[in-house]
TrEMBL record:
Domain CHY-type: from-to ranges: 14-89
PANTHER family noted in UniProt: E3 UBIQUITIN-PROTEIN LIGASE MIEL1 (PTHR21319:SF20), RING FINGER AND CHY ZINC FINGER DOMAIN-CONTAINING PROTEIN 1 (PTHR21319)
SUPFAM superfamilies (alphabetical): CHY zinc finger-like, RING/U-box, Zinc hairpin stack
Annotated ranges, domain CTCHY-type: 91-155
Alphabetized UniProt keyword annotations: Ligase, Metal-binding, Nucleus, Ubl conjugation pathway, Zinc, Zinc-finger
Species of the source: Hibiscus trionum
Protein name: MYB30-Interacting E3 Ligase 1
Length: 270
């Protein structure tokens, strides 16, 4: 009895982590319902589709529409299920019947978020779903982020990959907008400190503003421009102010930021 149970268990886990693609380790392939072709996963399909010569042929798999899978151990094609109907192998240690998703790498700690409607990684206990932002965030951001409605349902402003179901880690900036972590750090490394979407400062710039104060104090403007005034809009606080023009920068009178831009004077009331 014990020998039979051991044999069945070995069969169940046969080939674990031995099959798959660059995206997932799994013991089955999927038949794409859109084009009837076979791929390891939807990402493999989408990448292959995106390089087709004719843009009208580009398309993506709707994960929930997958109906057929092919066991990588015995090549049996069958309806979506966790266990192969022919050889009994477990085609994915993690399996989501809703997303038609398989993965042998359980260290990712997958979980299905009902609100997002897709599977996430990182452990259910480590994340919460923000209803306004419309996505799962790390518990560290609970009551500690600026909400932007559906902030994850757009493309990364740097690389333009869709963020909501991206495999890459994402970050939430002070303004509430999101982008890939690697894109964010690359942006900072290039001395770009403003959100590409709303232009607000994404890090504490107080030391930089103090340094600009010192530069302005040490840089005297020519007589013709010394008392010239301009209207500015502050990207950080959205305040509109009339200030003295300086070639180095214009300081917001409200929040003391230099993240400003000149605008036309406001219209006079009739």
């Amino acid at each position: 009895m014990e020998k039979g149970a051991s044999s069945a268990n070995e069969r169940l886990h046969f080939g674990k982590m031995g099959y798959g693609c660059q995206h997932y380790r799994r013991r089955c392939k999927i038949r794409a319902p859109c084009c009837n072709e076979v791929f390891w996963c939807r990402h493999c399909h989408n990448e292959a589709s995106s390089v087709l010569k004719n843009p009208s042929d580009w398309h993506e798999i709707v994960r929930q529409d997958v109906k057929q899978v092919i066991c990588s151990v015995c090549d049996t094609e069958q309806q979506v299920a966790q266990l192969c109907s022919n050889c009994g192998v477990n085609m994915g240690e993690y399996f989501c019947e809703i997303c038609k998703f398989f993965d042998d790498d359980t260290e990712k700690e997958h979980f299905h978020c009902q609100e997002c409607g897709i599977c996430r990684v990182g452990g259910r206990d480590n994340y919460f779903h923000c209803k306004k932002c419309g996505s799962c965030y790390s518990n560290a951001l609970r009551d500690n982020h600026f909400c932007v409605e559906n902030s994850m349902r757009h493309h990364c402003p740097i690389c333009y990959e869709y963020l909501f179901d991206s495999l890459k880690d994402t970050t939430v900036m002070k303004c509430g907008h999101t982008m890939h972590c690697e894109c964010y750090y690359e942006m900072i490394k290039r001395d770009k400190y403003c959100c590409p979407i709303c232009s607000k400062s994404v890090i504490d710039m107080s030391r930089t503003w103090m340094r600009i104060d010192e530069e302005i104090e040490a840089t005297e403007m020519p007589e013709d421009y010394r008392y010239k005034k301009v209207w500015i809009l502050c990207n950080d606080c959205n305040d509109t102010t009339e200030v003295y023009f300086h070639i180095i920068g214009q300081k917001c009178s409200h929040c003391k930021s230099y993240n400003t831009r000149t605008i036309s004077p406001p219209a006079l009331p009739h």
